[in-house]
Every structure is written in structure tokens, then in C-alpha cells.
Amino acid sequence: MVYDNPDGVRIGLEVHVQLNKLNTKLFCGCSTDYHDDEPNTHVCPVCLGLPGSLPVINEKAVDFAMKIGLALNCEIVGQTQFHRKNYYYPDLPKGFQTTQYDYPIASRGKVIIEGEDGERVIGVTRAHMEEDPGRLQHIGSIEKSKGTFINYNRSGMTLIEIVSDPDMRSPKEARRYLDKLRSILDYLDVFNGDLEGAMRVDANVSVFGGDRVEVKNISSFKGAERALLYEIMRQKNHIRRGGKIVLETRHFDEARGVTISMRTKEEEHDYRYFPEPDLVPMRVADKVPDILKTLPELPDAKRERFNSQYGIADMHARALTIQIKVANFYEEVAAEVDPKDAAVWVADILKGELNYRDTDVDAFKVDDIVEIISLVKQDKITEQSGVQIIRTILDEGGKPQDIVVSKGLLKVEDDIVAKAVEEAITESPEAVADYLAGKEKSLNFIVGKVMQKTKGRADAREAREKVLAMINK
Amino acid sequence: MITKEKVEHIGWLARIEIDEKESDAYAEKLNSVLDYFGQLDEVDTDGVEPTYHVMDVVNVFRKDEVRESLPQEEVLANTEHRQEGNFKAPRIM
Questions:
Q1: Which residue of chain A has the CA closest to B62?
Q2: Does residue A50 lie in a domain region?
Q3: How far apart are CA A7 and CA A236, in angstroms?
Q4: Does A1 reside within a domain?
Q5: Is A281 on the interface with B (CB under 8 A)?
Q6: Contact A149 B86 (CB under 8 A)
Q7: Judgement on whether residues A240 and A325 belong to the same structural domain of the protein
Q8: Domain residues for A390?
Q9: CB pair distance less than 8 Å for B87 and A28
Q10: Which of A280, A282, A283 to mutate: most B Cβ within 10 Å?
Q11: Angstrom distances, CA of residue A108 to CA of A14, A170, A294
């Protein structure tokens, strides 16, 4: 199947990733751990832009940026430096943002996603380093706002802006790209994606080869998909009515699910970039071999290894390797039980229950799932009971063994006998035929087998009745 | 060529108010600066590495170690416009 992209949709994404796992900001020693703290308590003369203050680059931020670049299959630039991007806005205390311009630290990479018609390569134009602005908050509603609060705790946090080529052909592909990016970044352990504002998305979208429209203010991956769906529909309708799409920036209104023209003045794009005189250039190419050594096994490679090492279905290998936490969890389980059983229980059952409760694999213990799988495999409980135990642990807590007792989930003897009867009959086709032909004694052979299988725990008379009932069915 | 209008535009970008009389004077001065750069442009720089910084130094880094931030009171000391620990700016659209 080939996806022919009927509307000529082209989507490119700009993703800002906040490296909140660094201890300090990009150019000063202020702590990055501000999320639960009072406003303006993680700031200093540098990130407040006070006159006379001087920035110094956080070396680990550079290492992280290179790590990301290499994981996205980028080329790392030989020498680079920071530039000033000049514009006035209250979230930017210096009146310029320190960012990279003509020599981004990483460029020309690629990310492989599951596209509309199979695997698809999405180009990464560039990934560059820059500082995060402060945070603005309207006092009251946006229409009746009496002013704006400014909190500079976020000011100077390290951002990596990852710009893709316009290679995505549908909102779904855009979503898959974002999910894949998040997956890779999680593997690299450079950020905590659950913190507010850790990943922010701007989208560029065009249809039928027309001009592109930039959509800003997208706050979630789901939001990105919705914003794109709306914007594509809007552009198509506009063209159908004889309109023309012009280069512009639009604002996504999450609550209403629409994009609104921002009517920005042209001047705002007049950024007058120039090299940052307060920072000397960085020559980082020599670091590449050492950084490469710190790269973990990435999702695509892990998926391939899971396929070959554990002999599990590709569908399972993929589901298990999206999140590094789940992959690690699976490997611990697979070390204890049959890896194929482990795949079914972790990828299909446990993940489903976790998603349903909007929680992650941290909420479950490896030992517990191992015990549940073992109980099922030893035929002590049914699969359905196994699922029930998972649900109980997630909702009420407890240990599998106790839940088995308290909910009376042990298979009753009847089930075991019934199973033995079934097996004895399938294993003795001749005896069954003989019995049906009139040799009543053949029945004893089958009942004997049942007794053997249940290690004598079955009642012989009952077993005989069960065998008869099943043969005559 | 820098015109009067261009000077006003640059002034607006820098949030500097420039009156009529001044803008003519600025235009003249900025044009002479540009003329000078025009002369520099004539120099053959083929094979010369661009200079991004006046000092021949690269890779000045610091370790990722936390240093104490300023107390909130000191951060806000230079403004009267504050509320609940925040700087307070006029309404922004």
C-alpha cells in the first residue's frame, strides 16, 4: 500500500526540548529544580540580564546537545558559537536571546517513524542550543487581563531546538515523529518529559505545494495532532473558496481547537543576529568519540535485539521498546519466565491496564508480574484471574499470593480434573474407539490415565462419570 | 543606503525614540559607517577563516555545579512593580 497524500500535505516540526536533567542553567549556576518553588528564587545577575554580568557555558549542556545530535544521526559541527537574537519582550530580560545561528551544533540527521505506508525517514534539518525565556502569566482572563506576571526561574534554562524537514504528510505522521523523538530523548536520559514545558512544539504546514503557515502555542502531542487537523482543513477550505494561503503565523487555541491569525508585524522577524561577544567559540568535534561511547542502545536497535534475542513478535518488540522503562522492566521479567509469555503479559495486558489508569510501569513490581505469570503457567489460576490480580494491585495494592487467597482465585479441583479428562481422552483415541465399539473395559484405561495425571487427587467415580459424559457428548 | 524611515525603524526595534531632527543626522552617520564597511568588502578574503571573536580562545566552559541564586527580595529590589514574588508588567497581548 502506498500513501498518495491526496491533499499534498507537508508538515515540518520545531520541537523545543528543555534539558531539565542538567543541574544548572545554560550560562549560570542557578539550579534547574525550580518547578515547585516560589517565583524568581532561581535567578542571578546572569539569567536576570543585569548589566555587567557575564555568561559561562555549562559544559554538560554541550555534551547533552551532542548526545542528542548523535542519537538523531546528525553531523556534529567542527566549530560553533552563540549568537544574539535581538527582540524586545518582557520574558527576555536582556533584550536578546542567546542562541545559535549559522552553525548549529548538529545538523542533517534523521529519525525513522512508522509512516502512513510503512517505515518512513524524517529528515532532521538541525538541532541547536539556546536559552529559555522567562515565564509570563496573564493576571485574570486574557481579555480582561490587568497585567502580566513575569517569573524568571525558567530564564536561561538550556533548550535544544530540533527542526525537522517538511517530511510528514499527515497529522498522524507528525504525532508518530513526536512520539519517536520523546522515546529517543527518554533513552538518552537528558530530560524529564513529564515536567511542565519540557517539550514544546511549533508546526509548519502547507497543502497543495502552497505557502506554509506556522502554528504556535501547541502544548501537547495530542494538541499538535488536533492543531494540524484543523489547520489543514482550514487551508483546504480557504483554497476551495478561491482564497490564497499566505505565509503567516497562527496561534492554536487549545480550548476551542482552532488556529487564529496573529497578524504579527513584519518587524518582529528583524532579529539582527550577531555573534555573542561575551562567549568564545566552541570547538567540539574532538568530543564526538567520547560522547558516542555514552550513547545507550536506542529504540530501533533495542527492538531488533528483542526480536532476535527473545524470539518475540515484532509488534511486541516495538511496544516494549517505546519507553526505556518498559523495555528494562520487560527484560527483568523475561529473565525469570518464558520471554514470549513475558511479552504477552507486559506488552498486551499490563501496558493496557497501565494506559487505562494513565500511569506508568513504575506503578508495578517485576516480582509481582513474574509471580502472576508463573501462577498462570502452573495452571493454578486462570488467565482471567491473572488480569484480575493486576487490576487489584493497581487499584488497591497488595501481593499476588494474598489476592489469590482473598479473592478465592485458585483453580477449583474440578477444573484440574476436567482438564485431565480432556487430555486423557485426546491422548487415547484407540481406547475411545474401542469403548464406542462396545468394549466397556477400555473405559478403565482412560480413567486410569486421569488418576495418573491428577496424581490421585481426583475422585475415581467422579472421574469415570466425567469421562463418560465427555465421550458421549 | 540608510533613509530617514530606516533610522526610525531601527529606533523602534531598539525602543529608542528618535525625533525628526535627529533622524537626519543619524542617517548621515550610519551611511558613513556603511561606506566604511563597503571599503572593507573590497578586500579579498578568499581562504581566510572568519573571525567570530577578537580573542583567539575557544572552549571556555564551567562545570554543571549549582551556585546559590539571589534571594527573591534582592531580585525584585529594583522594581516597584511586583506582586506575589513576580515582576508585574502591563497587559501583554
A1: A58
A2: yes
A3: 8
A4: no
A5: yes
A6: yes
A7: no
A8: 297-406
A9: no
A10: A280
A11: 14, 22, 21
* Helix runs in A378-428, H state only: 383-396, 400-406, 413-427
Residue A2 placed within a domain? no
- Whether residue A44 and residue B63 make contact (CB cut-off 8 A), yes or no, is no
Query: Chain B interface residues facing chain A, Cβ-Cβ under 8 Å?
Result: 9, 12-13, 15, 52-55, 57-72, 75-76, 83-92
Q: Beginning with the edge strand found earlier in the chain, give each strand of the sheet holding A75-76 in spatial order.
A: A75-76, A106-115, A118-131, A158-164, A10-18, A199-206, A213-218, A248-253, A258-261
Q: Which fold has domain B1-42?
A: Histone, subunit A (1.10.20)
Nearest residue of A to residue B49, measured between CA atoms: A79
Average pLDDT over all residues of chain B: 91
Number of domains in chain A: 3
Note the pLDDT tens digit of each residue in A185-228. Answer: 999 999 999 888 899 999 999 999 899 999 998 988 999 999 99
Q: Are residues A15 and A122 in the same domain?
A: yes
**Is A39–B64 a contact, with Cβ atoms under 8 angstroms apart?**
no
Q: Between A24, A41, A147, which is nearest B90 by CB?
A: A147
**Residues in chain A within 8 Å Cβ distance of B13:** 86, 88, 267, 270, 272
Residues A308 and A324 in one domain: yes
Task: Please report the pLDDT score of residue A265 as a whole number.
Answer: 52
A382 and A256 fall within a common domain: no
Q: Say if the Cβ atoms of A90 and B84 lie within 8 Å.
A: no
b vs e for A257-267, b when ≥16 Cβ sit within 10 Å of the residue's Cβ?
Answer: eebeeeeeeee
User: Quick check: A58 and B61 CB within 8 A?
Assistant: yes
Residue A142: per-residue pLDDT = 64
B47: left (phi over 0), alpha (psi -120 to 50) or beta: left
